[in-house]
């Protein structure tokens, strides 16, 4: 069962992504969380289900979003999921990945991403709490 915190983070995440997709027509939404019972369920991506997926009808644009509580930021599942989502994103003309975490976990999440040493070929716009992550720090 999802925690109230996770559900709240998911709702904030959807707001973040909606701001980025407002200029696109015909955005389709799917979800892997119970926060949005009115949305269709998304399929797994490389074995992982994102909390939110927004994409254009022609699949040229895709935005994935995932909310993380302090207990699941720095674990093997999150590391593997992040990498899988970045690999998935290579096939789109425009792709962004969004993470929403509790404010006090922002730097821990950024450190996790930095520690993974993501290869340049997979570096794509990645937002943590709607702040663009700099892979070069």
What class do helices, strands and sheet pairing give?
alpha/beta
User: In order across it, which strands form the biggest sheet?
Assistant: 1-2-3-4-5-6
Helix content percent band: 25-40%
Low-confidence stretches: none
Radius of gyration: 14 Å
Query: What is the distance, rounded to the nearest whole angstrom, between the alpha carbons of the first and last residues?
Result: 36 Å
Number of helices: 3
Mean pLDDT: 93
Element pattern in H and E: HEEEHEHEE
Main sheet overview: 6 strands, mixed
What does the overall shape look like?
A: globular
Strand percentage: 15-25%
Number of strands: 6
Structure description:
This protein has 137 residues and is an alpha/beta fold. A six-stranded mixed sheet has the order 1-2-3-4-5-6. The termini are far apart. It has three helices and six strands, in the order αβββαβαββ. The model has no long low-confidence stretch (mean pLDDT 93).
């Amino acid at each position: 069962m999802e925690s109230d915190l996770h559900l709240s983070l998911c709702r904030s995440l959807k707001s973040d992504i909606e701001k980025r997709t407002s200029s696109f027509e015909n955005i389709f939404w799917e979800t892997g969380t119970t926060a949005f019972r009115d949305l269709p369920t998304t399929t797994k991506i490389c074995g992982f289900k994102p909390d939110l997926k927004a994409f254009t009808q022609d699949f040229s644009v895709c935005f994935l979003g995932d909310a993380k509580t302090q207990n699941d930021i720095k674990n093997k599942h999150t590391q593997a999921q992040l990498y899988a989502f970045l690999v998935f994103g290579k096939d789109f003309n425009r792709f962004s990945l969004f993470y929403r975490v509790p404010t006090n976990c922002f730097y821990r999440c950024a450190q996790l991403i930095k520690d993974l040493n993501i290869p340049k070929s997979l570096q794509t716009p990645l937002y943590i709490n709607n702040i663009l992550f700099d892979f070069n720090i």
